[in-house]
Amino acid sequence: MLTKALGFLDDQQIREDCKDQEACYRQRRKGAWAFSTRDQGYTVSDCTSEAMKAVIMLQRLPGYPQLVSDDRIRDAIDTLLTMQNPSGGFASYEPTRGSEYMEYLNAAEVFGRIMVEYDYPECTTAVVTALSLFSQHDPTYRKAEIAKAKEGALKYIRKAQRPDGSWYGSWGICFTYAGMFALESLASVGEKYENSSRVRKACDFFLGKQKEDGGWGESYKSCETGEYMHHAKSQVVQTCWALLGLMEAGFPDREPIERGIRLVMGRQKRNGEWEQEAIEGVFNKSCMISYPNYKFIFPVKALGMFAKRYGDIEIL
What we know:
Mean pLDDT: 96
Largest sheet: 2 strands, antiparallel
Shape: globular
Low-confidence stretches: none
Strand content: under 5%
Strand order of the largest sheet: 1-2
Number of strands: 4
Structural class: mainly alpha
Radius of gyration: 20 Å
């Protein structure tokens, strides 16, 4: 299965830039991965980062074919380094090319923040972790530029944190999603609960939203209002996001983490799956989207991280 997945990533990498790229104001795309397939044709920073990480991790394991060459991985790095904004944050499809005043010309009735690109904690974290993994794989290539990009990215993550300890998320719902990513970014440079007041504040934000049943549940209304809005019921996927953030942060009290893990395990069906619950994804503040695989990906990741950190202990 994983060999087939590697083959898919090999096949779907964009191998060339657009014809007349500069004249058409198109972002560099050689080496990138798109949001869906290669034919979609546009660079996406977090898709490129996650695909590149998957390629590197698989190709470092014994028994897997070396389908994507080092030159092609370097192409991906070259493209990612063009995606950073002056703030240090990373955009999704292209760097910010105009003022936010352009939003006054937004003709859409339902979409917000679509006229220019913005910084995103989710995209920024994906790029930071991809650059870190690449530097282990190919430590000399554009070393100084990668270090500078990561330094700027972490400055953005710190600055984007709200006074209550949260981060606003643009591609998943909402503060729970962004908080998971931001804490992963900070952990990647050694900022954890024990040594960072901003990480402690982020953990306090998460713990303040935990429900009585041990889970977390955030409504899509958060994306519209810009303030955290509880969902009526705990959500497995969002519970996993919060747990991953707390574990990345090195939160020292295992009890709230165990309560969340217990909820995730208790919702698993006899056939091993989890039910599709409420909406998990969002585009442009008001376009909600379901990601059916999230109910598998994030529980497996959260349970695996818990077992790795605390051992295969009895929870239920």
